[in-house]
Amino acid sequence: MAQRNRNGRRKSDPALPFRPAQEKFLFERKLHTVTEEEPVEKLLNKSLQRGGDPYFDNLCHTLHGISELCLPSVVSALIGWHQRMELKINETTVAGNDSRVQVKKLLAVNYLFCIVLIEILPQVEFHLSACEQQVKYLLDSSFHQVQYKDP
């Protein structure tokens, strides 16, 4: 017997399309607040923590609910947003720019990406075949930004 989500729809039904116009705006607003309006020294885990911004928390909760029905589309949109943001940050690097600001922007994008993935990926067990390529991409790129530093 197929499992059903909270809407009574079978979790194995074909994925629905997801068009994240408002979500991208809220993510970028949050990133702007964290990277432009707060001091560079402020830790990202304090700025982007769950419970600190009701709009962001509501967005994460909404994405969790949407991912029950169309996880492949949500993950594809999230990966596309992440790639565009990384490219945008890397392209806007100017020699006179403060490298600490650029690093903080890149870390904030990656941190936000991880927070949303933590929220939506519990649904992957119901969409394994449809999300196989996205999961492979996430696994391949998961340690791309990790750097070893001596203590």
Automatic annotation (TrEMBL):
Q: Report the superkingdom from the record.
A: Eukaryota
Note the InterPro entries from the entry.
Answer: Furry/Tao3/Mor2 (IPR039867)
Gene Ontology BP terms? cell morphogenesis; neuron projection development
Which Gene Ontology cellular component annotation is one that this UniProt entry carries?
cell cortex
PANTHER family recorded: FURRY-RELATED, PROTEIN FURRY
Q: What is this protein called?
A: MOR2-PAG1_N domain-containing protein
